[in-house]
UniProtKB/TrEMBL annotation:
It holds the Pfam family SSF. It is a multi-pass membrane protein. Gene3D superfamilies: Sodium/glucose cotransporter. Keywords: Cell membrane, Ion transport, Membrane, Sodium, Sodium transport, Symport, Transmembrane, Transmembrane helix, Transport. Belongs to the sodium:solute symporter (SSF) (TC 2.A.21) family. It catalyses: L-proline(in) + Na(+)(in) = L-proline(out) + Na(+)(out). It is found in: Cell membrane. InterPro entries: Na/Glc_symporter_sf, Na/solute_symporter, Sodium:Solute_Symporter. It comes from the Bacteria. The chain crosses the membrane at residues 6-25, 37-59, 79-97, 128-149, 169-188, 195-213, 248-268, 280-299, 319-337, 369-391, 397-418, 425-445, 451-473. This is Sodium:solute symporter family protein. It comes from Billgrantia zhangzhouensis.
């Protein structure tokens, strides 16, 4: 092992120690609260921590590994598409977070499936809604988590000069430890540390690329390889029409506002938080990280024959960065991917240990037992996701991420987003979740319509079902309503 590999291992050990220490500190903080400390950080997140965890979770593995790979294969259209995430997150923070936060506090909701159940009347039908929402969340976010584990494993393997499986096991083990210890408090605190490193990595990467190549030469080289890279005539991979890339903006807004692992941040913020401050921090961090996909175009010019587009970022770091700087930036990118992985793991574990438990068995009186169940779920589902990654067939990271997150978005839009402004019925919420799930899932798996069209059509179908079924139920005599 050479000196730089030893340097990388040293960085890894130090930062893993820091993350576990933050998990330990957050566990002590969490123990001052009830189960809500594990699930929603005791509703204690301030402006910068809230913004940090939102941006870190939203960009992370997608922004640093998946998106450069998509840019390498499809061109600059992905740079534009990725840039829409920053303004979308700002809009979600400024114009939706307060509504969801206030209603959740009024009802005492600690998860998004619980919010859905309580928002639609509770009772037996509420337990059904909570259980169905939890099951859909677990299934789809485990798919997404599989892609995140592969992403962090790929980068860690090349960084540490070990096998993919060894890297994945190492990375996931640390995520399990600090998430198990501190719940959402640990996730948010570690995300904030991570996003600072991500921002620094973005600055270094952009400076290296822009100072190492003439822009005219860069443009000419890409046009010689494939004119579609800079002047696309289709919207691939988002759809046939070039205009479909603009659908990323509403998709990204709903991504930030509706998905359980994103929306839970709104529930975890302080009740009196200044949302305009959160919005400013999100805008600055998000705009900076939105430029990372340009790496894909840089590598396409220098290394035009990559067998695997998802290797664009690892190849960039290996060939165009000094080994010491490469080690530091790779660490920050690993941080980025961990920030989504820990959020997904926390949400899946919460849906299992809290929502499925309440749906099937009802509450437990002992808070210590509830907390123990939460922690056991983190370990069990972390191991399950790791096994899924180890035995999954080959897949493109970005596509698998959209399959999981996009289909979940289509399932949740009615009972989470629309219900915040217009109250539907429990039956409307149930049918909307199922129709969104099957519509988006079918189109992503079997219809060649692009990556965004399927989830967005699923959102439309789900929304129509939510409103239509709810109106139909209201027309029934009171004796025939089930809610």
């Amino acid at each position: 092992m050479d000196a730089y590999k030893l340097f990388n291992w040293g960085l890894l050990v130090l930062t893993f120690g820091l993350l576990i220490y933050l998990g330990y500190l957050s566990s002590r903080y969490m123990n001052k609260s009830d189960e809500g400390g594990f699930l929603v950080a005791g509703r204690s997140l301030g402006a910068f921590v809230a913004a940090g965890t939102i941006v870190a979770t939203g960009f992370s593995g997608w922004g640093f590994m998946g998106s450069p790979g998509v840019t390498y294969q499809f061109g600059a259209i992905e740079v534009l598409g990725n840039f829409f995430f920053a303004p979308a997150m700002v809009i979600a923070v400024l114009y939706f977070a307060r509504f969801l936060q206030r209603r959740a506090i009024e009802m005492g909701s600690n998860t998004i499936p619980e919010y859905i159940a309580q928002r639609h009347g509770g009772g037996l039908m509420g337990r059904v809604l909570q259980g169905v929402a939890a099951f859909i969340t677990i299934l789809l976010l485990l798919i997404f988590l599989t892609s995140q584990i592969k992403a962090v494993g790929l980068l860690g393997a090349s960084w540490l000069d070990i096998e993919l499986n060894q890297s994945a096991i190492l990375m996931v083990s640390v995520i399990i430890i600090y998430t198990m210890l501190g719940g959402l408090v640990a996730v948010a605190w570690t995300d904030t540390v991570m996003v600072c490193g991500m921002a620094l990595a973005a600055v270094i990467i952009l400076a290296q690329m822009l100072t190492s190549v003439d822009l005219g030469t860069w443009e000419a080289s890409l046009n010689a390889i494939d004119p579609e890279l800079l002047n696309p005539t289709t919207g691939a991979p988002y759809g046939d029409s070039i205009g479909t890339v603009f659908l990323v903006l509403p998709y990204a807004f709903l991504f930030a506002a509706v998905l359980p692992y994103m929306a839970i941040r709104f529930l975890a913020m302080k009740p009196d938080i200044k949302l305009h401050k959160v919005g400013v921090y999100v805008a600055i961090l998000g705009a900076l990280l939105s430029l990372i996909p340009i790496v894909g175009l840089y590598i396409r010019m220098h290394v035009p024959d990559l067998a695997d587009p998802d290797m664009a970022m690892p190849v960039y770091l290996e060939q165009f960065m000094h080994p010491a700087i490469q080690g530091i930036i790779t660490l920050f990118i690993i941080f980025a991917m961990k920030s989504t992985a820990n959020s997904l793991l926390h949400t899946v574990a919460s849906a299992t240990s809290h929502d499925l438990r309440l749906s099937l068995f009802g509450p437990v009186s002992d808070e210590r037992l509830a907390l123990a169940i939460n922690r056991v779920a983190v370990v069990a589902l972390g191991v399950l996701a790791l096994l899924m990654m180890l035995y999954a067939p080959p897949f493109m990271l970005s596509w698998l991420g959209i399959l999981g997150s996009g289909t979940l978005l289509a399932s949740m839009i009615g009972p989470v987003f629309i219900s915040t402004f217009w109250q539907g019925s429990a039956w409307g919420a149930l049918i909307a979740m199922l129709m969104g799930f099957f519509t988006s899932g079918y189109m992503m798996l079997f219809a060649d319509v692009g990556w965004l069209i399927g989830p967005l059509i699923g959102c439309v179908v789900s929304s129509v079902c939510y409103v239509g079924i709810s109106l139909m139920v209201r027309q029934l005599p009171l004796s025939q309503r089930l809610s």
